[in-house]
Design a protein that fits this description.
The complex is a heterodimer of chains A (472) and B (326).
Chain A lengths: L1 H13 L6 H12 L6 H12 L6 H32 L4 H14 L8 H7 L3 H15 L10 H12 L1 H17 L4 H48 L7 H28 L2 E4 L1 H7 L12 E3 L6 E7 L5 H13 L6 E7 L3 E3 L1 H6 L2 H9 L13 H12 L7 E6 L11 H10 L2 E6 L13 H4 L5 E4 L3 H12 L1
Parallel strand pairs in A: 3-4, 3-6, 6-7, 7-8
Antiparallel strand pairs in A: 1-2, 4-5
Chain B lengths: L4 H10 L6 H13 L3 E4 L6 H12 L3 E5 L6 H4 L1 E3 L1 H10 L1 H8 L5 H10 L1 H4 L5 E3 L1 H7 L5 E5 L6 H13 L1 E4 L3 E4 L5 E6 L7 H6 L1 E4 L5 H11 L5 H16 L8 H13 L7 H11 L3 H25 L6 H5 L5
Parallel strand pairs in B: 1-8, 1-9, 2-5, 5-8
Antiparallel strand pairs in B: 3-4, 6-7
Helix pairs in contact in B: 1-2, 12-13, 14-15, 15-16
The chains are: A alpha/beta (472), B alpha/beta (326).
Bound molecules: adenosine-5'-triphosphate and magnesium ion.
């Protein structure tokens, strides 16, 4: 059972559900306390120990059914059906089995029956399940990739099970029983049973192989979906992808936050804060019973964000803003501006509203700028230079997001130069690939000398990497 | 100790808490394996209540740590009782003088007092807060860390340490190990996602709104004296309301409040007017109330139409018993 749980854990992992070793061990111990006969309890126990996030529950349920209950249920169903068919043909299976057992016990012991033949004849489904799983693994069914291979792997599993040998053994048994005086009618029934058993075995093996294919595909689909999402270009996203992506950003941001806060905890003690200490201990005659330390800050940067929100880069801006605002704690101050041509201050938006609402609002120009004009970076930078340059000091990181497609306007690179001179650093994220910079109406090359970091940023993976660099 | 999952379910029911096997299994395992449980779910579905009834069922003392923004280690773990320390120094002034007698210089005197330091920084002067109480209790307790999502991530990191070794270190005294291991329940409303590290240490229980059958049973248990048919109707309506896209979805506590209100008004069944008058008990936002009214009036219209159709003939008992909403 443990190896089966391990296998299941791997399957979960492959589908993108994070399960730690500790959690897998918890699952063993949990299952030990219950009986697996009750699949429902079993399912709850595994879930409680391994699945900790709501969005992983559907995947878990699906995989659980595929992996655990599905196949056994199918076994039961198929063998039940078989008994039903026999009944329709006027054969009382139970009665027949009883008689067989009786005869066999008289025919001293050794029936020369292998494991499979025994399990089939007694319809020991648990045993059969185990045998089929094992044989399928030997056959390499877990490597199945498409529908066309179902037949092949099913046959190999049947071979591995020794189905042919079992058929012969069972027929031999029928022969011997006949010789020992079993009535011809019952011999015929037994032969029919043997045929049906083999047919049912073929069916369930095929079913197992098909399930394996589904499991593998599921895996593949999930992986594909996830990888696609982080690799997918921001340029083409459907509504649904935007919603899913938003969740992923939230999760990534949370992870960075956890790292930050643990680091902050480690750095907790700074120097002695004399002033606070005296004050706190005033009531005790100034005797410093309680010592207060200054909070040591890892100098958290001030952040100024300049975001191009023209439609060509709106999605990049969207996720960058979401990222930065999820990480507000990492900065002492945060100021954000949006532009297409004129510059608009959207900082207040983020104070008043929920981040996601604020972002959608900002992308629409935040009621401060006209988003239906043509991009003009030079104008926007000049605007900033005129009105906000004083807000920048040597602790400020300026984060600029845009494709630098300037519609052949004056780039006014000198404005960026002055910003660069005052700021701690200037980081530019450009969704276009470097090979396009400086060509056509791109003026990226003109701005490059005044940027400390320039990154191509067109998908979530690239974005996360940059964010990491900025905050950690 | 619980003997089995069914035993858990029946023991909790004795405490007035109605739940299914899903909750029962996780509680059973937590108790058996000594693992903390992280209980998540929407507001008012009985997360806090679960911890309370489990403590009652096990006969363990319940120690509750209510989390909030800014909660820090001192408030959760222990604080030095300064005034008491000070008082002692005052009272023991003479003793202090005795101690430093014979000291020839300041350094010497300080050394002598220093040697007695531990007197003042001993457990005597510690005010234990919930976490410390839970750990130092002779009898195993149930520790409820309520609304842990409201605490800061820094505090979560600290909790993690406590939950992994059930011991705390007081610099002046040393390490205090748990005398008995508490059973720990953490609840969260998902105000923020808890860290993976914390989740890994816990069994996870997601409590959702109950299905109709379960909620009826909860209602009958918690609001004794309610007419069964009314209870049915209330629950049916609640489930309809939960299907709507509302700003705040009403929970079990609202179901109970509503049922109590209806009972107080002597209502025998739900009618349009009555529902409109009392909807504010379950819905807190005007927009939500309006949405729900739209949906419910359709429902109630259908009911009165059916009632009118039934009126002429004396309604057969079975039909009368059958609620309108079915
Ligand atoms: N299964 C249940 N059986 C009986 N009563 C219940 C059940 N679930 C909830 N209740 C009742 O519902 C009310 C709300 O429960 P509780 O305060 O535990 O909710 P909660 O999930 O902790 O909510 P919050 O997230 O707001 O803290 C309580 O009065 C409780 O008695
Ligand atoms: Mg609560």
């Amino acid at each position: 059972m443990e190896s089966k749980i391990v296998e299941f854990t791997n399957l979960l992992r492959k589908s993108g559900v994070r399960v730690s070793v500790a959690e897998a061990i918890d699952a063993f111990t949990a299952v030990d306390e219950l009986s697996f006969e009750d699949r429902e309890l079993f399912k709850i126990a595994l879930r409680a120990s391994m699945i900790k996030r709501g969005d992983e529950i559907p995947t878990y349920n699906e995989l659980f059914d595929l992996f655990w209950s599905g196949f056994y249920d199918n076994l039961r169903e198929q063998f039940g059906e078989m008994a039903g068919e026999m009944g329709e043909n006027g054969i009382d299976l139970e009665q027949l089995m009883k008689q067989l057992a009786e005869m066999m016990s008289q025919m001293d012991g050794d029936m020369d029956l292998g494991e499979l033949a025994k399990a089939l004849l007694t319809q020991n489904l648990n045993e059969l399940e185990n045998m089929i799983r094992e044989a399928a693994e030997q056959a390499g069914t877990q490597r199945i990739e498409n529908m066309l291979q179902v037949g092949f792997f099913s046959r190999r599993t049947m071979e591995g099970l020794g189905a042919e040998g079992a058929t012969e053994e069972l027929e031999g048994l029928a022969q011997r029983l006949e010789d020992a005086g079993l009535s011809p009618e019952q011999v015929a029934q037994l032969r029919e049973l043997i045929g049906k058993l083999m047919e049912t075995l073929r069916k369930v093996v095929r079913n197992f192989t098909e399930r394996e294919l589904q499991t593998q595909n599921h895996d593949y689909m999930e992986k594909f979906r996830r990888e696609m999402l982080t690799e997918k270009s921001f340029y083409h996203l459907t509504e649904e992808e935007i919603a899913r992506m938003r969740e992923v950003v939230t999760r990534l941001a949370q992870r960075i936050k956890n790292v930050l806060s643990i680091r902050r905890k480690r750095l907790k003690h700074g120097k002695l804060d004399l002033h606070q200490t005296l004050r706190r201990n005033m009531a005790r005659g100034g005797i410093p019973f309680e010592v207060i330390y200054k909070q040591r800050r890892k100098d958290r940067p001030k952040l100024v964000i300049l975001c191009d929100v023209s439609s060509s880069v709106a999605n990049v801006s969207r996720f960058m803003l979401q990222f930065m605002y999820s990480l507000q704690e990492a900065f002492t101050k945060m100021h954000s501006y949006v532009f297409v041509s004129e510059l608009g201050d959207v900082t207040p938006l983020f104070k008043e509203r929920d981040v996601n609402v604020a972002i959608e609002n900002a992308l629409d120009g935040g009621d401060v700028i006209n988003v239906y004009t043509r991009s003009n970076f030079g104008h926007a930078f000049h605007d900033f230079w005129k009105n906000h340059l004083s807000a920048i000091d040597n602790r400020t990181t300026v984060l600029i997001l845009g494709d630098a497609r300037n519609n052949y306007n004056d780039p006014k690179a000198w404005c960026l130069r002055d910003i660069h001179n005052k700021a701690k650093n200037v980081v530019w994220l450009n969704p276009e690939s470097p090979s396009a910079w400086g060509f056509g109406d791109s003026v990226m090359d003109r701005y490059l000398p005044y940027c400390d970091v320039v990154e191509e940023c067109r998908n979530l993976r690239q974005l996360a990497k940059v964010v990491d660099q900025i905050v950690l | 100790m619980f003997e089995s999952v069914d035993h858990v379910v029946s023991q909790l029911e004795k405490q007035g808490y109605i739940c299914d096997k899903r909750i029962g299994t996780v509680v059973f395992l937590a108790n058996k394996l000594g693992k903390p449980v992280l209980v998540e779910g929407p507001a008012g579905v009985g997360k806090t209540e679960l911890a309370k009834v489990v403590s009652a069922a096990l006969g363990r003392e319940l120690i509750r740590l209510q989390c909030y923004e800014g909660l820090d280690e001192a408030k959760a773990l222990y604080e030095w009782e300064y005034s008491k320390q000070l008082l002692y120094t005052q009272i023991l002034k003479d003793k202090v003088a005795e101690t430093i007698q014979g000291a020839t210089n300041l350094r010497d005197a300080a050394e002598k007092i220093g040697a007695e330091d531990s007197v003042f920084f001993s457990e005597r002067f510690i005010v234990p807060r919930p976490l410390m109480q839970a750990i130092t209790s002779e009898e195993p307790v149930l520790l409820l860390i309520d609304e842990v999502d409201k605490s800061d991530p820094e505090f979560e990191a600290f909790l993690l340490e406590v939950l992994s070794d059930f011991q705390v270190t007081v610099p002046e005294i040393g390490t205090i190990r748990a005398k008995s291991q508490p059973l720990v329940f953490l609840t969260s409303n998902d105000a923020r996602e808890m860290s993976d590290a914390l989740k890994r240490r816990c069994l996870h229980l997601w409590i959702d709104y109950p299905n109709e059958e379960l909620e009826c049973r909860i209602l009958n248990t918690k609001v004794p004296g309610i007419d069964e048919r009314l209870a049915d109707e209330v629950v049916t309506v609640m489930h309809r309301i939960r299907d709507l896209d509302l700003k705040k979805t009403p929970s079990i506590s609202e179901t109970l409040d509503w049922a109590r209100a209806l009972l107080a008004l002597n209502a025998g069944e739900l009618e349009d007017e009555l529902v409109n008058d009392t909807l504010s008990v379950i819905l807190k936002y005007e927009g939500d109330v309006q949405k729900a009214q739209g949906e419910l009036s359709k429902l109630l219209e259908k009911k009165s139409a059916e009632a009118a159709a039934e009126k002429p003939q004396p309604a057969p008992a079975a039909a009368a018993k059958k609620g309108i909403l079915h």
